[in-house]
Amino acid sequence: MFTGIVEELGEVTAVETLDDASRFRVRGPLVTRGAKHGDSIAVNGVCLTVVEQEGEEFTADVMAETLKRSCLGALTAGSRVNLERPMVADGRFGGHIVQGHVDGTGTIVARTPSDHWEVVEISLPAGLARYVVEKGSITVDGVSLTVVEAGTEHFTVSLIPTTLALTTLGHKEPGDPVNLEVDVIAKYVERLLGTPGAAR
């Protein structure tokens, strides 16, 4: 489990395209410290398994389902990525419950800067709109954020200077895709209540 508090801004150093998957090599000096085969690391909000680790880089395989549901397939060598290790049992819970299981993708629609923060509007797939509420939590490219406004086709978040400086969200432009993970609690509640269109 993750909390959506990005630990470092890493870099994709290589992408190998396979028949039904891709293999990524990612540089992240902090998250690779002590990492070993089988460990989990979230890359732009997607939980990936470390296959190999050497120096400040790790390799992870990304299956077709993950490529289809997320925007990892758009990454190339040189792409910057948000990296986070799983939360340890006695760690500080800084964000919200994040599984690293991306529900879908959105697109940066607009950015409105101000003196101390920036409001970002992001498109919202129709199937996810019912899980997004004003002042609720959502994960965007692995970053735990609070929803400012929630519509049926979009939502907005406010980004503080730290988020702008230390995550990919400070560099995304209108038209760029982002990974979205909604609050898993909302999906479980829907399923338990037997609501039409209940979560998978």
Task: Write up what this structure looks like.
The protein is mostly beta strands and about 200 residues long. The protein has two domains: about 10-85, Elongation Factor Tu (Ef-tu), domain 3 (Beta Barrel), CATH 2.40.30; about 105-195, Elongation Factor Tu (Ef-tu), domain 3, CATH 2.40.30. Helix content is about 10%, strand content about 40%. The chain is built from three helices and twelve strands, in the order βββββαββββββαβα. The chain has helices spanning about 65-70, 160-165, 185-195, and strands spanning about 10-15, 20-25, 40-45, 45-55, 55-65, 80-85, 105-115, 120-125, 135-140, 145-150, 155-160, 175-180. A six-stranded antiparallel beta barrel has the order 1-2-5-4-3-6. A six-stranded antiparallel barrel has the order 7-8-11-10-9-12. It is globular and about 45 Å long. The two termini are about 20 Å apart. The mean pLDDT is about 90.
